[in-house]
Specification:
This protein has 113 residues and is mostly helical. It has one domain. The chain is 56% helix and 0% strand. The chain has 5 helices and no strands. Helix 1 packs across helix 4. The N and C termini lie far apart (58 Å).
């Protein structure tokens, strides 16, 4: 029986430094996926710095990611607790309406200051 069949992690962390490194690596991968949204990097950073769950969900939607990926992006990029992050709708769809996600993107892309 393989590790996958036993539902074991592919690798383990033995100390806090390794865990933080893997967390940073996951966040970097999530940010890279969000680059497919074709918005300036500053917009992704702004959504993460604001800890905007709705903003990150909207960016994931625009990038063509799944609602489940959007849930992960909220926790990795904005540090939102999984229980507080916007979860996919019960049917697996987006937790926000398309009009709201479009509005969120418009707000995030407005120049600051």
């Amino acid at each position: 029986m393989t590790a996958v069949e036993r539902r074991e992690p592919a690798f383990g962390t033995t100390n806090r430094a390794e865990f933080r490194f893997l967390l940073c690596l996951q966040a970097l991968a999530a940010a890279h996926c969000l680059s497919r949204a074709k918005v300036p990097e500053e917009v992704v950073l702004r959504a993460a710095q604001l800890r905007s769950a709705k903003g990150l969900v909207s960016l994931c939607w625009k990038a063509g990611l799944t609602p489940r990926c959007a849930h992960v992006a909220q926790t990795l990029l904005a540090g939102i607790a999984p229980a507080l992050a916007l979860a996919p709708a019960p049917d697996g769809g987006w937790p926000l309406r398309e009009t709201e996600m479009t509005w969120q993107l418009d707000v995030l892309m407005e120049p600051v200051g």
